[in-house]
Amino acid sequence: MNLRIPGPTPVPAEVAQAGAAEMINHRGPQFAAMLGRITAGAQQVFQTKNSVLTLTASGTGAMEAAVVNHVAPGEQVLVITIGVFGQRFVDIVRAYGAEPVELAFDFGSAADPAQVDDALRANPGIRTVLVTHNETSTGTTNVYLPQISEVVHRHDALMIVDAISSLSSIPVQTDAWDLDVVLSGSQKGWMTAPGLAFVSVSDRAWARQETNPMPRFYFDLRRAKDALARGETPWTPAVSLVFQLDKAIEMMLAEGLDAIYERHRRLARMTRDGIRALGLELLASEGLESDTVTAVKIPDGVDGSQFTKVAREQFDTVFAGGQGPLRGKIFRFGHLGYVHEPDIRAGLVAVEKTLVSLGYAVANRA
């Protein structure tokens, strides 16, 4: 089965095998050494000297941790949304009794730094800004993230970034872009099974935590920081996933970050070129297309609800459908993590065969 969704992504055999290792004491020296290795490796991938914490949680757990540690009840928070996952931040902020001020951009577009500046000027009490770097629901990358960070800090606000589907596949320069809190998840470009989340925290963000009255327990990052200093996690970790991650980071650093980024750029271009050659249209605006997932508009005359079903059942390829208001209107072709040219070629063949099966006259079909 060719798994072409934006997560979970395929796990290399070496990584899967690492997860089958004999169980160890999560309070012992072997685990402490492994946790030290993955923390140092994660700092390289995050391109930061800041603390990087590993949580046993999904990417949404990392998002919740970012909110409960840095946002106070009743506080106004600017949430920049370019898709469904940006709107998840809105829901989390609201669930914890804070007041989200949503700055929404059309699906397929990126956030405009000038409009972020305007929103902060109009709401001078805002101290925290939440934004998604790479929106998998629309196949769009927020390419102006460095400029947005500059605007946010000009207003003395904290910058929190969901980089769950970008970091480790698309460049994210945590320190150079002055990002206070950056989130990622093991099931994306890290080539590891779902269940681990990563949070990098700047000195500015640690200071915010010390005065933040929001109640928290499992996701209290101060507890995670204190435990990390002892070579531990505060709660029982997913030990088998940590074994996997240890091997995955070893493979990533051996390939090199620049090579990883170039591979993702190359495969993304290959995917987009192949999709366009079939006469299909992308959702993301030109120049904003994600290098980890391509969102493709379902052509007129094709039943969008059947596309992923036929691809899976007849052509052994799993694509993701649309979410929220995009359900039935797009399909999403993932190309991140452990992925290579044969996977993309096979995926494009499956797209063509599925469309033909559904009665669509594919352009340039031999």
Percent helix range: 40-55%
- Name the beta content range: 15-25%
- In one word, what is the shape? globular
Number of strands: 13
Structural class comes to alpha/beta
Q: Major sheet, described briefly?
A: 7 strands, mixed
CATH uppermost class of the largest domain: Alpha Beta
CATH topology call of the largest domain: Aspartate Aminotransferase, domain 2
Q: Write the CATH homologous superfamily of the largest domain.
A: Type I PLP-dependent aspartate aminotransferase-like (Major domain)
The poorly predicted ranges are none
Please state the oligomeric state of the protein chains shown.
single chain
CATH architecture of the largest domain: 3-Layer(aba) Sandwich
Give me the Rg, rounded: 21 Å
User: How many distinct domains?
Assistant: 2
Would you spell out the secondary-structure blueprint of this structure?
Layout: E1 2-4, H1 13-18, H2 29-46, E2 51-56, H3 59-70, E3 76-81, H4 84-95, E4 99-104, H5 113-122, E5 128-132, E6 134-135, E7 140-141, H6 145-154, E8 158-162, E9 181-185, E10 196-201, H7 203-211, H8 221-229, H9 239-255, H10 257-277, E11 293-297, H11 304-315, E12 317-321, E13 330-334, H12 341-357
Parallel strand pairs: 1-12, 3-4, 3-5, 5-8, 8-9
Antiparallel strand pairs: 2-10, 6-7, 9-10, 11-13, 12-13
In short:
The chain is α/β, with parallel strands linked by helices and 366 residues long.
Description of the molecule:
The strands form three sheets. Strands 2-10-9-8-5-3-4 form a seven-stranded mixed sheet, sandwiched between helices. The chain has a four-stranded mixed sheet with strand order 1-12-13-11, with helices on both faces. The protein has a two-stranded antiparallel sheet with strand order 6-7. The mean pLDDT is 97. The two termini are 25 Å apart. It has twelve helices and 13 strands. With 366 residues, the chain is an alpha/beta fold.
